[in-house]
User: Fold Orotidine 5'-phosphate decarboxylase from Kickxella alabastrina.
Amino acid sequence: MASFSQQTYASRGERHQHPVAKQLFATMERKQSNLSLAADVSTKAELLALADKVGPYICVLKTHIDVISDFDTDLVEQLQALSIKHDFLIFEDRKFADIGNTVKLQYGGGVYRIADWAHITNCHVIPGEGIIQGLAEVGVPKGRGLLLLAEMSSKGMLATGAYTDKNIEMAVRNDFVFGFIGSRRFTEERDLVTMTPGVGLHASGDALGQQYRTPELIITENGSDVIIVGRGIYGPGKDAVAEAQRYREAGWDAYLKRLE
Ligand code: 6AU
Assistant:
């Protein structure tokens, strides 16, 4: 059997057992997009406007819901409507990092009730495997999916070597997990999706340690599946629609190239 990165998103989706991976691959194929928008804006109006404009070109809208200064439940309802209108999944980039019992409360309850509306969320495995079990108790009954932060994009990050390897082991044995945040394909033991942040066509980084690599390096060479792009699309002076189209094309071309 060919490596997962040599197979089409469509065929991986058809065979996949995980409800979110299945939905993600089907969406990517339908929209010919492996682009996720990191919508790090700070108001409800900006987030909704950006999601509506860029929605047609993305497979996943990634949010940091706790940076929205005027959050309310109507925002979530409108995001869900946009997710249906434009056919994308919602990923709340919460980066859970506490013991299983605490993350259960944080994921299912509180002000944000993340599990009610986010198809995807992510966590660090610093506390051990209980964090995955806690999140799974809330997310599995709702058909949600989890990504582990096997690596990070920032300068000097500590998720390397044995720590990354532990992420891979835990991902393989926990059905709620359908993939990773990281820079490459990590394993052939199970079809786990990699989503990669720190992607830029022009900039090399920012003043706070972010590092950017190109879609071609990430998708064609490293075998990752989804590029996550934020400021490269909506940054100062950018035409968000034009940039989203450009990144979508770059990501999709890089995918077609790796299938050759
Ligand atoms: O393209 P940018 O630099 O404007 O935005 C990158 C987005 C931000 C980060 O919170 C997130 O990607 N991110 C993550 C994620 C997705 O978990 C992990 C990481 O290692 N680096 C990173 O930038 O919303």
